Amino acid sequence: MRPKSFLRLALFIVFGFIGAYVARSGTPPDIFAITGGYFLLAAVLAFATLGFILPDVLELAGRAGIAALARQIAELIPASRSQISVSRFAFRRKKSADKEKYVNPLLVDTSSLIDGRILEVAQSGFLFGTLLVMPSVIDELHKLSDSRDELKRKKGRRGLDILSKLKKDRKVRLELLRVDPKEKDVDAKLVTLARKLKGRILTVDYNLNKVASIRGVSILNINELANALKAAVMPKDVLELVVMEKGREKGQGVGYLPDGTMVVVEKGADLQGKSVQVEVQRVFQTAAGKMIFAKLIK
């Protein structure tokens, strides 16, 4: 028999006898004659129960006293208040804390890094949370930067440059993840991880926007933010750019602003590789991105 169990049994018997003695000696004879053995039995059970639970009562009182003493000691040592925790005096071990979770996780996709505006938005303090970049996103940027196509190569290098600036900026909390979800497609990986972390995806990709919405994942679309803040380029503005390729329509040339915005230049098809000045005619802003139509300045 354990010592504590033996102590309970002993106290149960001793306090039972004490209850019987008190009932016989402390009760007037006329009342005792009326109640008979019932009063005696009630007294024995009451005192015996008290004796049975007495060890627990003393233990709880001791714990409370030690905890109060610990608090008083902590208050008497001001320099150590930040280091001393009353919880250290707990008698039961607490369960280990959960693994640290990301604060408002924001998964960054390839398109938002190439777009580049994420840097200015993050530096402005409008993005609250942790920016998470998957290995597959970085791999995509590396493949683009090594592409033979000049335009793709510029996009890849721009994305890597933006990522490097985000990582160095102390105002931005960015973490490069080491492991990807098992899905093959990068967009699918982003959606899966966002659902797992209960986070959102930062993108300018219209198709990813639609897929994520269907899967119940929230999207922060920088194009939609730009649309809400109105376009920075207005009709009659003069821009300087390089015509990179021919447009879809006859005679059109296509160039790009530093943020990747497409500019369709009328009568610019024969000016590929040349730097030209154009005047903005129309600006279209949609969730899929911004498109500018302009004409050459002679």
Tell me the layout of helices and strands.
Layout: H1 3-26, H2 29-35, H3 37-75, E1 105-108, H4 110-115, H5 117-123, E2 130-133, H6 135-145, H7 150-168, E3 174-176, H8 186-197, E4 200-203, H9 206-214, E5 219-221, H10 222-228, E6 238-246, E7 253-256, E8 262-266, E9 275-286, E10 289-296
Parallel strand pairs: 1-2, 1-4, 2-3, 4-5, 8-10
Antiparallel strand pairs: 6-7, 6-9, 7-8, 9-10
Helix pairs in contact: 1-3, 5-7, 6-7
Task: Write a compact overview of the structure shown.
The protein has 298 residues and is α/β, with parallel strands linked by helices.
Q: In words, what does this structure look like?
A:
- The protein is α/β, with parallel strands linked by helices.
- It contains 10 helices and 10 strands.
- It has helices at 3-26, 29-35, 37-75, 110-115, 117-123, 135-145, 150-168, 186-197, 206-214, 222-228; strands at residues 105-108, 130-133, 174-176, 200-203, 219-221, 238-246, 253-256, 262-266, 275-286, 289-296.
- The longest helix has 39 residues, at 37-75.
- The termini are far apart.
- The relative contact order is 0.08.
- The model is unreliable at 79-99 (pLDDT under 50).
Strand order of the largest sheet: 3-2-1-4-5
Low-confidence stretches: 79-99
DSSP strand content = 15-25%
Count of domains:
3
Helix share, percent: 40-55%
